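Dataset card, provenance and construction

Sequences and ligand SMILES were collected as paired inputs. For each pair, a complete structure of the chain with the small molecule in place was predicted and serialized as C-alpha coordinates. The example below shows a pair involving S-adenosylmethionine. Curators did not alter the output after generation; any descriptive sentences attached to a record were derived from the structure itself.
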Amino acid sequence: MKASDVPCPDWMQQRLKFHGSQVPLSTFMEWALHDPEHGAYGSGHLRVGTDGDFVTSPSLGDDFSALLALQLIEWLKVLARRHPDQLLSVVDVGPGEGHLMDQLRPHLAAEAPDLIGRLECVLVELNPGMEARQRSLLSSDHPIPCRWSALEDLRAAPLVGTVIAHELLDAFPVERLIVRNGALQRQLVKLQPSDQGPGSLVWADGPLPEALATQIQQQAQRTGLQLPPMGVDNGWATEWHHAVEPWLRQASDAIQAGMLLVVDYAMEASRYYSARRPDGTLTAYRQQQATGDVLRHAGEQDITAHLCLETLLDSAKATGWTPVGQCRQGEALLALGLSERFTALQQLPGHQLDEALRRREALLRLVDPSCLGELRWLAFERDADHDGPLMATPSRFLREPG
Ligand SMILES: C[S@@+](CC[C@H](N)C(=O)[O-])C[C@H]1O[C@@H](n2cnc3c(N)ncnc32)[C@H](O)[C@@H]1O
Protein backbone atom coordinates (compact mmCIF):
# COMPACT_ATOMS: atom_id res chain seq x y z
CA MET A 1 0.00 0.00 0.00
CA LYS A 2 1.56 3.26 -1.15
CA ALA A 3 1.33 5.88 1.56
CA SER A 4 4.62 7.22 2.68
CA ASP A 5 4.87 10.98 2.79
CA VAL A 6 1.54 11.83 1.27
CA PRO A 7 0.86 15.59 1.46
CA CYS A 8 -1.98 16.35 3.86
CA PRO A 9 -4.50 19.14 3.20
CA ASP A 10 -4.80 21.83 5.89
CA TRP A 11 -8.27 20.84 7.04
CA MET A 12 -7.18 17.22 7.58
CA GLN A 13 -4.03 18.37 9.41
CA GLN A 14 -6.10 20.39 11.84
CA ARG A 15 -8.53 17.52 12.35
CA LEU A 16 -5.69 15.08 13.00
CA LYS A 17 -3.86 17.44 15.39
CA PHE A 18 -7.06 17.88 17.36
CA HIS A 19 -7.32 14.06 17.67
CA GLY A 20 -3.75 13.39 18.81
CA SER A 21 -2.16 13.24 15.33
CA GLN A 22 -3.19 9.68 14.55
CA VAL A 23 -6.52 7.93 13.98
CA PRO A 24 -7.71 4.54 12.67
CA LEU A 25 -8.25 4.33 8.90
CA SER A 26 -12.00 4.08 9.58
CA THR A 27 -11.98 7.57 11.14
CA PHE A 28 -9.83 8.97 8.33
CA MET A 29 -12.28 7.51 5.78
CA GLU A 30 -15.27 8.90 7.67
CA TRP A 31 -13.78 12.42 7.45
CA ALA A 32 -12.39 12.09 3.92
CA LEU A 33 -15.72 10.84 2.56
CA HIS A 34 -18.40 12.40 4.75
CA ASP A 35 -17.09 15.61 6.33
CA PRO A 36 -19.90 18.05 5.42
CA GLU A 37 -17.47 20.77 4.31
CA HIS A 38 -14.46 18.88 2.97
CA GLY A 39 -15.50 15.23 2.49
CA ALA A 40 -15.70 13.78 -1.03
CA TYR A 41 -19.42 12.93 -0.68
CA GLY A 42 -20.21 15.25 2.24
CA SER A 43 -19.25 18.36 0.26
CA GLY A 44 -20.68 16.96 -2.98
CA HIS A 45 -17.21 17.25 -4.69
CA LEU A 46 -17.27 13.74 -6.04
CA ARG A 47 -19.24 13.07 -9.23
CA VAL A 48 -20.52 9.69 -10.38
CA GLY A 49 -20.68 9.21 -14.16
CA THR A 50 -18.67 9.06 -17.36
CA ASP A 51 -17.78 12.75 -17.00
CA GLY A 52 -17.21 12.41 -13.23
CA ASP A 53 -14.78 10.59 -10.97
CA PHE A 54 -15.94 7.01 -11.53
CA VAL A 55 -18.75 5.14 -13.23
CA THR A 56 -21.36 2.85 -11.74
CA SER A 57 -23.72 0.66 -13.76
CA PRO A 58 -26.73 3.05 -13.83
CA SER A 59 -24.47 5.98 -14.70
CA LEU A 60 -23.67 4.30 -18.06
CA GLY A 61 -27.26 4.56 -19.30
CA ASP A 62 -30.70 3.16 -18.91
CA ASP A 63 -30.24 -0.54 -19.81
CA PHE A 64 -29.03 -1.63 -16.36
CA SER A 65 -32.09 -0.14 -14.66
CA ALA A 66 -34.44 -1.60 -17.29
CA LEU A 67 -33.14 -5.10 -16.48
CA LEU A 68 -33.06 -4.56 -12.72
CA ALA A 69 -36.67 -3.30 -12.87
CA LEU A 70 -37.76 -6.74 -14.14
CA GLN A 71 -36.29 -8.36 -11.02
CA LEU A 72 -37.82 -5.76 -8.70
CA ILE A 73 -41.24 -6.22 -10.30
CA GLU A 74 -41.07 -10.00 -9.84
CA TRP A 75 -40.42 -9.46 -6.12
CA LEU A 76 -42.94 -6.63 -5.74
CA LYS A 77 -45.72 -8.73 -7.27
CA VAL A 78 -45.07 -11.52 -4.77
CA LEU A 79 -45.08 -8.97 -1.94
CA ALA A 80 -48.27 -7.38 -3.31
CA ARG A 81 -50.03 -10.77 -3.10
CA ARG A 82 -48.67 -11.58 0.37
CA HIS A 83 -49.48 -8.09 1.76
CA PRO A 84 -52.58 -7.06 -0.20
CA ASP A 85 -53.41 -3.93 1.79
CA GLN A 86 -49.99 -2.39 2.07
CA LEU A 87 -48.04 0.25 0.22
CA LEU A 88 -44.96 -1.18 -1.51
CA SER A 89 -41.67 0.71 -1.23
CA VAL A 90 -38.58 0.60 -3.43
CA VAL A 91 -35.75 1.88 -1.25
CA ASP A 92 -32.39 2.97 -2.71
CA VAL A 93 -29.72 3.45 -0.04
CA GLY A 94 -26.74 5.56 -1.11
CA PRO A 95 -28.27 6.79 -4.38
CA GLY A 96 -25.24 8.87 -5.51
CA GLU A 97 -26.45 11.13 -8.31
CA GLY A 98 -29.90 9.49 -8.20
CA HIS A 99 -29.45 7.87 -11.64
CA LEU A 100 -30.85 4.49 -10.58
CA MET A 101 -34.14 5.77 -9.16
CA ASP A 102 -34.56 8.29 -11.95
CA GLN A 103 -34.34 5.45 -14.49
CA LEU A 104 -36.23 2.84 -12.46
CA ARG A 105 -39.43 4.83 -12.00
CA PRO A 106 -40.43 4.94 -15.69
CA HIS A 107 -39.57 1.24 -16.11
CA LEU A 108 -41.58 0.24 -13.04
CA ALA A 109 -44.54 2.31 -14.26
CA ALA A 110 -44.35 0.90 -17.80
CA GLU A 111 -43.77 -2.75 -16.89
CA ALA A 112 -46.08 -2.95 -13.86
CA PRO A 113 -48.91 -0.43 -14.44
CA ASP A 114 -51.10 -2.51 -12.10
CA LEU A 115 -48.78 -1.56 -9.22
CA ILE A 116 -49.01 2.21 -9.78
CA GLY A 117 -50.89 3.67 -6.83
CA ARG A 118 -49.39 1.06 -4.53
CA LEU A 119 -45.75 2.01 -5.15
CA GLU A 120 -43.46 4.64 -3.64
CA CYS A 121 -39.72 5.25 -3.98
CA VAL A 122 -37.63 6.06 -0.92
CA LEU A 123 -34.10 7.44 -1.16
CA VAL A 124 -31.79 7.10 1.84
CA GLU A 125 -28.80 9.43 1.58
CA LEU A 126 -26.33 10.33 4.30
CA ASN A 127 -24.95 13.49 2.70
CA PRO A 128 -27.04 16.62 2.14
CA GLY A 129 -24.86 17.68 -0.83
CA MET A 130 -25.68 14.41 -2.64
CA GLU A 131 -29.34 14.58 -1.62
CA ALA A 132 -29.64 18.05 -3.17
CA ARG A 133 -28.36 16.66 -6.51
CA GLN A 134 -30.80 13.73 -6.31
CA ARG A 135 -33.71 16.08 -5.62
CA SER A 136 -32.88 18.22 -8.63
CA LEU A 137 -32.66 15.14 -10.90
CA LEU A 138 -35.85 13.40 -9.75
CA SER A 139 -38.92 15.25 -10.89
CA SER A 140 -41.79 15.41 -8.42
CA ASP A 141 -44.20 15.02 -11.34
CA HIS A 142 -44.39 11.23 -11.65
CA PRO A 143 -47.15 8.71 -10.81
CA ILE A 144 -44.72 6.87 -8.50
CA PRO A 145 -43.93 9.36 -5.71
CA CYS A 146 -40.46 9.77 -4.22
CA ARG A 147 -39.43 10.73 -0.72
CA TRP A 148 -36.19 10.95 1.22
CA SER A 149 -35.78 9.33 4.62
CA ALA A 150 -33.18 7.96 7.04
CA LEU A 151 -33.15 4.24 7.84
CA GLU A 152 -33.53 5.07 11.55
CA ASP A 153 -36.72 7.00 10.77
CA LEU A 154 -38.17 4.09 8.78
CA ARG A 155 -37.88 1.91 11.89
CA ALA A 156 -40.92 3.63 13.42
CA ALA A 157 -43.14 2.28 10.62
CA PRO A 158 -41.27 -0.57 8.87
CA LEU A 159 -41.96 -0.96 5.16
CA VAL A 160 -42.97 -3.75 2.83
CA GLY A 161 -40.80 -3.68 -0.28
CA THR A 162 -37.31 -3.96 -1.67
CA VAL A 163 -34.10 -2.33 -0.48
CA ILE A 164 -31.27 -1.77 -2.97
CA ALA A 165 -27.71 -1.20 -1.75
CA HIS A 166 -25.94 -0.55 -5.03
CA GLU A 167 -22.21 0.10 -4.61
CA LEU A 168 -22.91 1.33 -1.08
CA LEU A 169 -21.19 -1.07 1.30
CA ASP A 170 -17.80 -1.01 -0.43
CA ALA A 171 -17.54 2.70 0.43
CA PHE A 172 -18.19 2.11 4.14
CA PRO A 173 -15.29 3.05 6.43
CA VAL A 174 -13.15 -0.02 7.17
CA GLU A 175 -10.51 -0.99 9.68
CA ARG A 176 -7.09 -1.79 8.24
CA LEU A 177 -5.43 -4.79 9.87
CA ILE A 178 -1.75 -5.67 9.66
CA VAL A 179 0.24 -8.69 10.80
CA ARG A 180 3.19 -8.00 13.11
CA ASN A 181 5.06 -10.95 14.56
CA GLY A 182 2.21 -13.30 13.76
CA ALA A 183 -0.53 -11.23 15.44
CA LEU A 184 -3.04 -8.71 14.12
CA GLN A 185 -2.61 -5.00 14.80
CA ARG A 186 -4.74 -2.08 13.66
CA GLN A 187 -3.19 0.39 11.22
CA LEU A 188 -3.48 4.07 11.92
CA VAL A 189 -3.18 7.14 9.74
CA LYS A 190 -0.61 9.44 11.25
CA LEU A 191 0.29 13.08 10.64
CA GLN A 192 4.03 13.47 10.21
CA PRO A 193 5.01 17.08 10.93
CA SER A 194 7.60 18.71 8.68
CA ASP A 195 9.87 21.74 9.23
CA GLN A 196 10.00 22.48 5.51
CA GLY A 197 6.29 22.70 4.74
CA PRO A 198 2.93 21.08 5.30
CA GLY A 199 2.88 17.81 7.21
CA SER A 200 2.41 14.49 5.46
CA LEU A 201 0.42 11.32 6.09
CA VAL A 202 2.03 7.98 6.93
CA TRP A 203 0.77 4.63 8.18
CA ALA A 204 1.46 3.65 11.80
CA ASP A 205 0.67 0.55 13.84
CA GLY A 206 -1.53 0.47 16.93
CA PRO A 207 -2.97 -2.23 19.18
CA LEU A 208 -6.14 -4.05 18.11
CA PRO A 209 -8.94 -2.71 20.34
CA GLU A 210 -10.64 -5.40 22.40
CA ALA A 211 -14.11 -4.88 20.88
CA LEU A 212 -12.71 -5.23 17.36
CA ALA A 213 -10.65 -8.30 18.31
CA THR A 214 -13.79 -9.92 19.76
CA GLN A 215 -15.87 -9.09 16.66
CA ILE A 216 -13.21 -10.63 14.39
CA GLN A 217 -12.79 -13.69 16.61
CA GLN A 218 -16.53 -14.37 16.88
CA GLN A 219 -17.20 -13.94 13.17
CA ALA A 220 -14.14 -16.02 12.30
CA GLN A 221 -15.45 -18.82 14.52
CA ARG A 222 -18.92 -18.74 12.95
CA THR A 223 -17.62 -18.67 9.36
CA GLY A 224 -14.55 -20.88 9.71
CA LEU A 225 -12.35 -17.95 8.71
CA GLN A 226 -8.71 -17.96 9.73
CA LEU A 227 -7.41 -14.46 10.33
CA PRO A 228 -4.51 -13.95 9.92
CA PRO A 229 -4.34 -16.84 7.45
CA MET A 230 -1.59 -19.45 7.63
CA GLY A 231 1.76 -18.63 6.12
CA VAL A 232 1.43 -14.86 5.73
CA ASP A 233 4.50 -12.65 5.99
CA ASN A 234 5.13 -9.92 8.50
CA GLY A 235 3.39 -6.80 7.14
CA TRP A 236 0.54 -8.71 5.42
CA ALA A 237 -2.44 -6.33 5.56
CA THR A 238 -6.15 -6.49 4.90
CA GLU A 239 -9.48 -4.79 5.64
CA TRP A 240 -12.29 -5.49 8.06
CA HIS A 241 -15.82 -4.19 7.42
CA HIS A 242 -16.90 -3.52 11.01
CA ALA A 243 -19.72 -1.14 9.93
CA VAL A 244 -21.61 -3.51 7.62
CA GLU A 245 -23.39 -5.57 10.30
CA PRO A 246 -24.82 -2.51 12.14
CA TRP A 247 -26.06 -1.22 8.78
CA LEU A 248 -27.71 -4.57 7.95
CA ARG A 249 -29.46 -4.43 11.32
CA GLN A 250 -30.75 -0.91 10.58
CA ALA A 251 -31.98 -2.06 7.17
CA SER A 252 -33.67 -5.08 8.72
CA ASP A 253 -35.38 -2.90 11.35
CA ALA A 254 -36.68 -0.69 8.53
CA ILE A 255 -38.32 -3.58 6.67
CA GLN A 256 -41.34 -5.52 7.89
CA ALA A 257 -41.26 -7.83 4.88
CA GLY A 258 -39.30 -7.76 1.67
CA MET A 259 -36.08 -8.21 -0.20
CA LEU A 260 -32.63 -6.69 0.08
CA LEU A 261 -30.43 -6.61 -3.02
CA VAL A 262 -26.75 -5.88 -2.42
CA VAL A 263 -24.75 -5.19 -5.59
CA ASP A 264 -21.11 -4.70 -4.76
CA TYR A 265 -17.52 -5.77 -5.23
CA ALA A 266 -17.06 -8.87 -3.09
CA MET A 267 -14.99 -12.03 -3.02
CA GLU A 268 -14.77 -15.33 -1.17
CA ALA A 269 -12.84 -15.38 2.12
CA SER A 270 -10.34 -17.81 0.58
CA ARG A 271 -9.34 -15.12 -1.94
CA TYR A 272 -9.78 -12.14 0.40
CA TYR A 273 -7.90 -13.36 3.45
CA SER A 274 -5.16 -15.14 1.55
CA ALA A 275 -1.37 -15.08 1.62
CA ARG A 276 -1.61 -14.37 -2.12
CA ARG A 277 -3.32 -11.02 -1.36
CA PRO A 278 -0.74 -9.35 0.90
CA ASP A 279 -2.07 -5.81 0.63
CA GLY A 280 -5.86 -6.02 0.85
CA THR A 281 -8.31 -4.46 -1.58
CA LEU A 282 -8.30 -0.74 -0.69
CA THR A 283 -8.70 1.39 -3.83
CA ALA A 284 -9.39 5.06 -4.39
CA TYR A 285 -11.11 6.61 -7.41
CA ARG A 286 -10.75 10.13 -8.76
CA GLN A 287 -11.09 11.56 -12.25
CA GLN A 288 -11.65 8.05 -13.69
CA GLN A 289 -8.33 6.81 -12.27
CA ALA A 290 -8.04 3.97 -9.75
CA THR A 291 -5.15 4.01 -7.30
CA GLY A 292 -3.95 2.21 -4.18
CA ASP A 293 -2.82 5.57 -2.84
CA VAL A 294 -5.85 5.98 -0.58
CA LEU A 295 -4.44 8.64 1.75
CA ARG A 296 -3.72 11.11 -1.06
CA HIS A 297 -6.21 13.85 -2.06
CA ALA A 298 -8.21 13.47 1.17
CA GLY A 299 -11.75 14.68 0.46
CA GLU A 300 -11.39 14.53 -3.31
CA GLN A 301 -11.44 10.81 -4.00
CA ASP A 302 -13.69 7.86 -3.26
CA ILE A 303 -12.11 5.20 -1.04
CA THR A 304 -13.41 1.64 -1.31
CA ALA A 305 -12.69 -1.85 -0.04
CA HIS A 306 -14.16 -5.11 -1.41
CA LEU A 307 -16.55 -7.07 0.78
CA CYS A 308 -15.90 -10.60 2.02
CA LEU A 309 -18.79 -12.84 0.91
CA GLU A 310 -18.77 -15.17 3.94
CA THR A 311 -18.71 -12.40 6.55
CA LEU A 312 -21.42 -10.48 4.67
CA LEU A 313 -23.67 -13.57 4.57
CA ASP A 314 -22.97 -14.28 8.23
CA SER A 315 -23.79 -10.69 9.25
CA ALA A 316 -26.97 -10.77 7.17
CA LYS A 317 -28.17 -13.95 8.92
CA ALA A 318 -27.30 -12.45 12.31
CA THR A 319 -29.46 -9.40 11.58
CA GLY A 320 -32.66 -11.09 10.40
CA TRP A 321 -32.02 -11.56 6.66
CA THR A 322 -32.32 -14.95 4.94
CA PRO A 323 -29.91 -15.35 2.00
CA VAL A 324 -31.73 -16.19 -1.25
CA GLY A 325 -28.73 -16.52 -3.57
CA GLN A 326 -25.88 -14.70 -5.25
CA CYS A 327 -24.06 -14.50 -8.57
CA ARG A 328 -21.87 -12.21 -10.63
CA GLN A 329 -23.43 -9.20 -12.37
CA GLY A 330 -22.71 -10.69 -15.80
CA GLU A 331 -24.78 -13.78 -14.96
CA ALA A 332 -27.56 -11.74 -13.32
CA LEU A 333 -28.01 -9.43 -16.30
CA LEU A 334 -27.94 -12.31 -18.79
CA ALA A 335 -30.66 -14.06 -16.79
CA LEU A 336 -32.71 -10.85 -16.87
CA GLY A 337 -32.52 -10.56 -20.68
CA LEU A 338 -29.33 -8.70 -21.56
CA SER A 339 -28.75 -10.70 -24.77
CA GLU A 340 -32.26 -9.86 -26.02
CA ARG A 341 -31.54 -6.15 -25.47
CA PHE A 342 -28.23 -6.57 -27.27
CA THR A 343 -29.96 -8.19 -30.26
CA ALA A 344 -32.68 -5.51 -30.27
CA LEU A 345 -30.00 -2.83 -30.78
CA GLN A 346 -29.38 -4.25 -34.25
CA GLN A 347 -32.98 -3.43 -35.19
CA LEU A 348 -32.59 0.29 -34.41
CA PRO A 349 -32.96 2.46 -37.54
CA GLY A 350 -29.81 3.90 -39.18
CA HIS A 351 -30.35 7.42 -37.83
CA GLN A 352 -30.00 5.97 -34.32
CA LEU A 353 -26.61 4.41 -35.04
CA ASP A 354 -24.79 6.62 -32.50
CA GLU A 355 -27.23 5.62 -29.77
CA ALA A 356 -26.96 1.93 -30.73
CA LEU A 357 -23.15 2.07 -30.52
CA ARG A 358 -23.21 3.90 -27.18
CA ARG A 359 -25.65 1.39 -25.68
CA ARG A 360 -23.72 -1.56 -27.10
CA GLU A 361 -20.55 -0.28 -25.43
CA ALA A 362 -22.42 0.26 -22.12
CA LEU A 363 -23.93 -3.25 -22.21
CA LEU A 364 -20.48 -4.74 -22.79
CA ARG A 365 -19.04 -2.77 -19.85
CA LEU A 366 -21.85 -3.99 -17.57
CA VAL A 367 -20.80 -7.61 -18.08
CA ASP A 368 -17.05 -7.21 -18.64
CA PRO A 369 -15.48 -9.54 -16.03
CA SER A 370 -12.56 -7.15 -15.55
CA CYS A 371 -14.93 -4.27 -14.82
CA LEU A 372 -18.57 -4.02 -13.70
CA GLY A 373 -19.29 -7.66 -14.61
CA GLU A 374 -17.24 -8.64 -11.54
CA LEU A 375 -19.83 -7.03 -9.21
CA ARG A 376 -21.78 -9.55 -7.13
CA TRP A 377 -25.55 -9.52 -6.79
CA LEU A 378 -26.67 -10.91 -3.43
CA ALA A 379 -30.35 -11.21 -2.52
CA PHE A 380 -31.78 -11.59 0.99
CA GLU A 381 -35.33 -11.77 2.23
CA ARG A 382 -37.08 -10.98 5.45
CA ASP A 383 -40.52 -11.30 6.96
CA ALA A 384 -40.72 -10.02 10.53
CA ASP A 385 -44.09 -11.75 11.08
CA HIS A 386 -42.91 -15.14 9.91
CA ASP A 387 -41.13 -17.53 12.28
CA GLY A 388 -38.79 -20.16 10.87
CA PRO A 389 -37.25 -20.49 7.41
CA LEU A 390 -38.87 -18.44 4.65
CA MET A 391 -40.10 -19.78 1.34
CA ALA A 392 -37.39 -18.59 -1.04
CA THR A 393 -38.95 -15.80 -3.08
CA PRO A 394 -38.49 -16.53 -6.81
CA SER A 395 -35.63 -14.54 -8.29
CA ARG A 396 -35.23 -14.41 -12.02
CA PHE A 397 -31.68 -13.04 -11.79
CA LEU A 398 -30.58 -16.37 -10.27
CA ARG A 399 -32.19 -18.55 -12.94
CA GLU A 400 -30.45 -19.83 -16.07
CA PRO A 401 -31.06 -17.48 -19.02
CA GLY A 402 -34.18 -18.74 -20.88
C1 LIG B 1 -20.49 4.94 -4.57
S1 LIG B 1 -21.82 6.01 -4.34
C2 LIG B 1 -23.12 4.94 -4.91
C3 LIG B 1 -23.80 5.54 -6.05
C4 LIG B 1 -25.06 4.90 -6.57
N1 LIG B 1 -25.63 3.85 -5.75
C5 LIG B 1 -24.78 4.41 -7.94
O1 LIG B 1 -24.71 3.22 -8.12
O2 LIG B 1 -24.62 5.21 -8.86
C6 LIG B 1 -22.13 5.98 -2.61
C7 LIG B 1 -23.34 6.79 -2.18
O3 LIG B 1 -23.72 6.36 -0.88
C8 LIG B 1 -23.87 7.48 -0.01
N2 LIG B 1 -23.64 6.93 1.34
C9 LIG B 1 -22.48 6.52 1.89
N3 LIG B 1 -22.70 5.97 3.11
C10 LIG B 1 -24.03 6.00 3.31
C11 LIG B 1 -24.90 5.57 4.35
N4 LIG B 1 -24.42 4.99 5.45
N5 LIG B 1 -26.23 5.76 4.22
C12 LIG B 1 -26.74 6.35 3.11
N6 LIG B 1 -25.97 6.79 2.08
C13 LIG B 1 -24.65 6.62 2.18
C14 LIG B 1 -22.88 8.46 -0.55
O4 LIG B 1 -23.11 9.78 -0.12
C15 LIG B 1 -23.13 8.28 -2.05
O5 LIG B 1 -24.30 8.94 -2.46
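Derived descriptions for this record:
The pocket of S-adenosylmethionine is lined by residues 41, 48, 56, 58-59, 93-96, 99-100, 124-127, 130, 166-168, 171 (CB under 6 Å).
The CA atoms of residues 234 and 293 lie 21 Å apart.
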